[in-house]
Amino acid sequence: MVANRSGEAPRETAGDRARLPFRLAARVTLATFLVSHLTPFGSATGTLLNVSTLETEGIAASTTGEAIGLTSLVSTVALIDLFSIGLVATPADTSPALTS
């Protein structure tokens, strides 16, 4: 944290933020995935679990937000890629029943 002379709260710098360990990120992501698929309002419940678990482990809220955003972005890109590959790889149907 960077102290200032004006009496304001110290501000966080890039060096102050905790790094998110891979094992913790993987464990929290898998738990969030499970909870979000088993509970009502799944996505909201999973996100709440994600944030509370990471904050309990000492990860700052800003880092938690970045982790959730990056996870969503990577997931969306992967799903679009899979759909595109499937679309390109699927041959056109040329069965006679559809051409008559």
Question: Could you characterize what this model shows?
Answer:
The protein has one domain. It is built from 4 helices and no strands. It has helices at 22-38, 42-56, 61-89, 96-99. The radius of gyration is 22 Å and the shape is elongated.
Integer count of domains: 1
Structure class: mainly alpha
Radius of gyration: 22 Å
Euclidean distance between termini CA atoms? 74 Å
Backbone shape = elongated
Task: Output the keywords.
mainly alpha, 100 residues, elongated
Per-chain topology:
Blueprint: H1 22-38, H2 42-56, H3 61-89, H4 96-99
Helix pairs in contact: 1-2, 2-3
In short:
The protein has 100 residues and is an all-alpha fold. The chain is 65% helix and 0% strand.
